[in-house]
Design a protein that fits this description.
With 303 residues, the protein is an all-alpha fold. It has one domain. The chain is built from 15 helices and two strands. Strand 1 and strand 2 form a beta hairpin. Helix 6 runs antiparallel to helix 15, helix 8 runs antiparallel to helix 9 and helix 12 packs across helix 14.
Length: 303
Amino acid sequence: MRRGRGYKWVDRELARLDPDTDWERMISLYVGHRVPEFALAMMVYPGTMRMMRPGHGSATLAHTGKLETRPRRRFEDGNEFLMAWMVDGLSSPAGRSAAERLNRMHLAIARATPHLPGNFDDVDDFVYPLVLLATSADRLQTSLGLPGTSDNMKVAWHRWAQTLFRLLERESGPLAGEAFPEDWDAMTEFALKFDARPYEATEFGHRVATAMMEHFAERWFPFPLREFGRDLTRYLAGEQVCRLHRIGTLTPRRERTVRLFLKSAFLTQRLLPDYRRPLPERLRQTRRRPKSLPGKRSSRCTG
């Protein structure tokens, strides 16, 4: 990565690239040098709550126990996959190795849980997480009345999600031949339909969602602001998800406070310089810190 590119350099680099051919480089630049760790957490924890609305998903997460007993480790392990796929790139040895490793993990869990049949065999359960990763920032920003993802980045994100989907395998075989939404609009439509499905509450879902919400609040907010951290999680997860998992809902006043915080954070980011150190390097630095010491916090959000 060349240095000396100036204060806000990522947009200039992205403008030079063709999303049909350079999408991998575009995702790497955007995630590596625009996204702070806090924004990653805001996407991963509420996103996981959304993904586990089907009862078999929450049952599997509860079975592994990692989100309840080792939530920080679960977040760090998840970040390693995302950094390999987003920053190293899906064509890189690291990106392909991460996909193969996840496939092996899913198959091992499936074999170890015969009492939870089909947990890794529904194609939609693979489509939705990738669609959510690609579109969640746009949905959040436009819901706040802010500009969303650019047209070129929409193409890049769709190419990224579609390519990763084809590297993954379900319990009954590879996904390469299965259908994936054909473009950005089809991805957003798929997410809306998935969100609108009827779901049944489970004790597993309540336990795992509560653990994730508590860890997010404790990791990113000092004690006097922990309740705000929980409210932020609730807002990002959405009212339907909160009611399903029974983790509480927001009053109108508290919702306005969260919206003001998020909007201010996004607007502040537009004034801050792009990161020089890539996100994986920043994550490794955080991981090396003693767990008894809080990491340096940032209010920057992904844009």
